[in-house]
TrEMBL record:
<feature type="domain" description="Cyclin-like">
    <location>
        <begin position="201"/>
        <end position="281"/>
    </location>
</feature>
<feature type="domain" description="Cyclin-like">
    <location>
        <begin position="104"/>
        <end position="188"/>
    </location>
</feature>
<dbReference type="InterPro" id="IPR006671">
    <property type="entry name" value="Cyclin_N"/>
</dbReference>
<keyword id="KW-0195">Cyclin</keyword>
<protein>
    <submittedName>
        <fullName>Uncharacterized protein</fullName>
    </submittedName>
</protein>
<dbReference type="Pfam" id="PF02984">
    <property type="entry name" value="Cyclin_C"/>
</dbReference>
<dbReference type="GO" id="GO:0051301">
    <property type="term" value="P:cell division"/>
</dbReference>
<dbReference type="GO" id="GO:0000082">
    <property type="term" value="P:G1/S transition of mitotic cell cycle"/>
</dbReference>
<keyword id="KW-0132">Cell division</keyword>
<dbReference type="GO" id="GO:0005634">
    <property type="term" value="C:nucleus"/>
</dbReference>
<dbReference type="InterPro" id="IPR039361">
    <property type="entry name" value="Cyclin"/>
</dbReference>
<dbReference type="InterPro" id="IPR048258">
    <property type="entry name" value="Cyclins_cyclin-box"/>
</dbReference>
<keyword id="KW-0131">Cell cycle</keyword>
<feature type="domain" description="Cyclin C-terminal">
    <location>
        <begin position="197"/>
        <end position="314"/>
    </location>
</feature>
<dbReference type="GO" id="GO:0000307">
    <property type="term" value="C:cyclin-dependent protein kinase holoenzyme complex"/>
</dbReference>
<dbReference type="InterPro" id="IPR013763">
    <property type="entry name" value="Cyclin-like_dom"/>
</dbReference>
<dbReference type="GO" id="GO:0016538">
    <property type="term" value="F:cyclin-dependent protein serine/threonine kinase regulator activity"/>
</dbReference>
Length: 318
């Protein structure tokens, strides 16, 4: 029974999964780049700016400490990043696409459990940090994912789901003991360091500080979550991922809003151009046939059905 569950984990049978594992997502929507977009240089200030508006400050960034807190986040963001972004080259039995499908499933579980957004980002961070230092077999990949979510929920949530809930959501593919054992392995690997500065922290500060509209807010969040599916995005810093998500949301929605000078905190302008360019195939994942969780999530009314809006902008698959 366990083998059957493993073969069907993340709602895609391995028979179908293995026939599409080599499929390149970029080929699904090659026409996306035909959409007229502003050049990356139009998004970049002449020099890096770290300036906080005083009129709109989230509670966690209350003056007079707002600048100090944000400067700390900018420095700390590199501390607990995955230090080997191309670790999948060292894995023998799992692939980038398997990782993507696992994350797609975790987005569904995260939504089902009604967890905080930060919990999802910490979960993915733990998965990548663990896999970058440990090789595993594919039948343990879901176990790493659910154990990471178990850890993140206990760290981020006031009322975390119980262990039995995590067993149930895996359709009893793993026992309580197996999840607890994997939890211990993950914590030892990351040396119990869970204070990850996620891109969501930067995105929320920038959205609120710049007083951007709800459409930009939800579109940015959706684009940022889509970046979780693409392992290539691990090489970019949290602040860069947040900034790129906002800039692309503004660009795609053709928003007339003026970009405030405090919108981004990027020192390497060339890196920003590269990140903007590499996010194009990330956005195309919104139309993926295999990974639908983020699309369905942002088609909900509470997110203003922003996925439907963006889908009308993306070109049709050929």
């Amino acid at each position: 029974m366990k083998q059957n569950n493993e073969n069907n984990y993340v709602r895609v049978s391995y028979n179908n999964f293995m026939t599409t594992r080599n499929r390149q997502f970029g080929n699904e929507l090659t026409n996306f780049q035909r959409i007229p977009t502003r050049s990356a240089s139009q998004f970049i200030c002449s020099k890096p700016i770290l300036k906080m508006e005083e009129e709109i400050i989230p509670p966690e960034f209350v003056n007079p400490y707002v600048v100090d807190i944000f400067e700390y986040l900018c420095v700390n963001q590199h501390k607990f990043m995955c230090q080997t972004p191309f670790y999948m080259n060292l894995q023998l039995d799992i692939t980038n696409q398997m990782r993507s499908i696992l994350i797609d499933w975790l987005v569904d579980v995260h939504l089902k459990f009604k967890l905080q957004p930060e919990t999802l980002y910490l979960t993915i961070n733990l998965i990548d940090r663990y896999l970058s230092k440990n090789t595993i077999m594919r039948n343990k990949l879901q176990l790493v994912g659910i154990a990471s979510l178990f850890i993140a929920s206990k760290f981020e949530e006031i009322y975390a789901p119980e262990l039995k809930d995590f067993v149930h959501v895996c359709d009893n593919a793993y026992t309580k003991e197996e999840i607890l054992e994997m939890e211990s392995k993950i914590l030892l690997t990351v040396q119990f360091s869970l204070t990850y500065t996620s891109p969501l922290k930067f995105l929320e500060r920038q959205i609120q500080g710049a007083n951007l509209c709800d459409k930009i807010n939800y579109a940015s969040r959706m684009i940022l979550e889509l970046s979780l599916l693409d392992i290539k995005c691990l090489k970019f810093s949290s602040s860069l991922l947040a900034t790129t998500s906002i800039l692309l949301a503004i660009n795609m929605l053709r928003s007339p809003q003026v970009l405030p000078s405090s919108l981004h905190y990027i020192e390497d302008q060339e890196e920003l151009r590269q990140c903007l360019s590499e996010f194009l195939p990330v956005i195309s994942l919104l139309k993926s046939f295999n990974m639908t969780a983020i699309r369905r999530k942002y088609q909900l009314e509470k997110f203003n059905k922003i996925a439907d809006v963006i889908l009308t902008i993306l070109p049709n698959q050929q």
